[in-house]
Automatic annotation (TrEMBL):
Alphabetized PROSITE patterns for the sequence: C_TYPE_LECTIN_2
Record flagged with keyword Transmembrane helix: yes
InterPro entries: C-type_lectin-like, C-type_lectin-like/link_sf, C-type_lectin/snaclec_domain, CD209-like_CTLD, CTDL_fold
Gene: LOC115579585
Superkingdom of source: Eukaryota
Record's protein name: C-type lectin domain-containing protein
Keywords of the record: Lectin, Membrane, Transmembrane, Transmembrane helix
SUPFAM superfamilies found in the cross-reference section: C-type lectin-like
Transmembrane segments: 60-81
Length: 276
């Protein structure tokens, strides 16, 4: 122990007057030296305090991380909700757009009929589809509910002066998609379209002989895959014809290659009749 740790104090003691044998002056005093040690916290106490601070800091960190994780989960849930809401709204707008276009076409036809006769037919002549056919612009579509092979389906369309549908735009694919959703009864309830590579494998042609525009295709992910066995049935020629339809999913990627001899419904297409 160093001198810096010691505090000195002078304490004055007065001699007792009861002892008559000792002669002393009343003012005579005796001094004693008393040492008082300064107290300091022990090393163990310091370590305990430091340990307590560390535990408290760890608890605070856990609480903060838990709060951040909860906030992230809530944010992710909100984003998913907004995505589904936006997708549903987009589908609704697509349906409303198709209905509005159909209504405009019918209204235009009525106006033209009222204005007859006219010396020269207007450039935008009114197009009409026969009963049972769906109209989209100048084209008419028939959705057959009879399941046939691809060749049989094509013959079915030809009897009505049509052919299996040829899809040439995103607008046309969207129209067919929205219409098929109401006509499909199950996921595998798909429809033949007029696309095949039966002449040369990998070279896709429409029924009129024109090649498929590779910048305008609507293949499902992983398609075409040209399987030679489907549902334990062997197909020597693979999958050379195309069907479309997807009841429970959004988007336009609805094309699947399929063996041409498989039975499916079909979509026929022909130009609308012109009202002169």
């Amino acid at each position: 122990m160093t001198e810096a740790d010691v505090v000195y104090s002078d304490v004055k003691f007065t001699k007792s007057k009861e002892k008559a044998t000792v002669t002393s002056s009343p003012n005579e005093s005796t001094y004693a030296e008393v040492k008082i040690l300064k107290t300091e916290p022990s090393a163990g106490s310091q370590q305990q305090a430091a340990g307590g601070s560390k535990v408290t800091a760890e608890r605070v960190a856990v609480v903060v991380l838990s709060a951040l994780l909860l906030a992230a989960v809530i944010a992710l849930g909100y984003i998913c909700y907004e995505y589904h809401q936006t997708t549903g709204h987009l589908q609704k707008l697509t349906v409303e757009n198709a209905a509005m276009r159909k209504n405009i076409t019918e209204t235009r036809c009525e106006v033209i009929m009222v204005q007859k006769p006219c010396p020269q037919p207007p450039a935008d002549t009114c197009h009409k589809c026969q009963e049972g056919w769906e109209q989209n612009g100048p084209q008419c579509y028939y959705f057959s509910t009879v399941k046939l092979t691809w060749e049989q389906a094509r013959e079915r369309c030809r009897r009505d002066g049509a052919d299996l549908v040829k899809i040439e735009s995103e607008d046309e694919q969207s129209f067919l998609m929205q219409t098929l959703r109401d006509k499909m009864t199950e996921p595998e309830d798909k429809f033949w379209i007029g696309l095949t590579d039966s002449v040369t494998e990998g070279t896709w042609l429409w029924t009129d002989g024109t090649p498929l525009n590779k910048s305008l295709t609507f293949w499902r992910k992983g398609e075409p895959d040209n399987w030679t066995e489907v549902n334990n049935t062997q197909y020597v020629d693979g999958e050379d014809c195309v069907r479309m339809g997807e009841k429970c999913e959004s988007g336009l990627k609805w094309w699947f290659d399929e063996p041409c001899t498989a039975p499916h419904k079909c979509i026929c297409e022909k130009s609308a009749e012109i009202d002169a």
